[in-house]
Design goal:
The chain is mainly alpha-helical. The protein has a domain of 244 residues. 76% of the residues lie in helices and 1% in strands. It has a two-stranded antiparallel ribbon with strand order 1-2. Helix 14 crosses helix 22.
Amino acid sequence: MSEQKADVVVDDGGAKISDLWKKEDYWAIWLGFLVLIAGYALFLAQTPPKFAETVNKANQALEIAAETAPFRTIEYFQAQDAKKKLRGRDSAAGKTIASYTRTPGRWSSNPLDSFYVPKVTVDAANEKAKPAAEAARAKEAAALEQARAAQKAAEGAGYKDASLNGAAEAKIGDWRKAQSSASRAGAAAAARPVNIFPTLAVLMILFMVFFGTGMVFMGQNAVKFAAGFVGVFAVAVLAFMMGSQSTMRVYGINAEAWAIILGMLIANTVGTPSFVKPAVQTEYFIKTGLVLLGAEVLFDKIVAIGTPGIFVAWVVTPIVLVSTFIFGQKVLKMPSKTLNITISADMSVCGTSAAIATAAACRAKKEELTLSIGLSLVFTAIMMIVMPIFIKAIGMPQVLGGAWIGGTIDATGAVAAAGAALGEKGMYVAATIKMIQNVLIGVTAFFVALYWTTKVEPEEQGLAGRQVGLGEIWNRFPKFVIGFLAASILASLISGSLGSDLSNAMVNEGLVRGLTSPLRTWCFVLAFTSIGLGTNFRELAHYFKGGKPLILYVCGQSFNLILTLVMAYVMFYIVFPDITAKI
């Protein structure tokens, strides 16, 4: 990585028209929107078969269930399941995209299983799994009968007997668990042969062209980038493989973490090969991924969870960010303000995404960004395992636990996984809170840029009190954030115009899960691989002196955990209990 690329910088020169095709931030926007436009064209072109018929029938069942019973009935869940099966990504185009964006799969003892499993092996495994699948289906059927009997008893009492209502709700919960187990067992008995080597090769070439086009316009050598990208992509694939190992999945050590680990091991042992360095483009990859992330932040989802979620995400987060930054400066006396604000934003807002935007806004050094992201990944892995265990151990309600997870765990994927461990309500609340919090990426970047240009840098340069023009603030502001916000607004407008059911099928279960989310994941892992390949341990060592970065993160996250839990309880259970009851 060149000296210029070693830092996350924003050009101080005046804005030029040529910036639109010569600057990295703008190319992140153009590439991100190229994907979005193609995605909307593909996934909005055709609705799933029998969509209107299925939705109308399901909505009628949901309405009847809501009017008759004080709890979610069997018919309610069956109607919800029917709607969930309506997915735009199940179209021919969606399946094709899924096959080419597929990452290495799960494995236990043989890494090759992550890439290639022959038909004879799959057939033998399916036969072996069939008895367990049949037993699971039998348990599901028995649990359903018991749930129906309990629900009928509650119905016979006019749903006025609290004990009968509670018994019915418990039996329905048991049926849902049995149903989930049967689904997993059935999938294990219906596996298909795997060979992703050809699709990985095609995806690598597509990425070369995709990112290489921007590199050419930015004045870089396309051939050197393509040659180096082979190495970056290979390490990223290995990171996906390591993150898919069964033990790694249990402990939350995902592909992003492995990308940094493997990259650092290479960089600090044999050294990053010189031919790979032109493709070590951390900011380029992750900024493009962040523009794609914008399509996942839908305003109608934010409104759906209501004011409590907004308070948890938009009130707690800035308080924690500012308090942590002040703590770092006044108490810990952090030697680097840029490191302090990058860690504070990473920990309080939404992890690596906020760290990248904040680092760009304050011109944090590459080593400071790497350190911040490394701390985030370590604590994310710990929290996504520990928090669900603690929440279930003390009997915390799913809604409260989900809100707590969504407001404190950094990575979006880790939030969804931790929330899912609590149950359906927990996952929904956790994912929605995190989505609401993601909106603050742009807000944080703007105010950090404003503060740094008007306060921090003038003081450091002995120019306190000087007037700063809007042009200077604009030059500092990371432009890719505009792409993130624009993608969010566009997705929200389209989603709102379609209605909730069609939006879920075509946008959430089409564009997002079928295209932008898998591509965003690839972009992030490529970026973290680049971080690792461009990091030297000796350059990081002096940042750890006195352990101040670690102390800052631990203290800030501790404050975040306490304040988020208190706010979530007050908002969801004291101020707005009626909204909580409807979740």
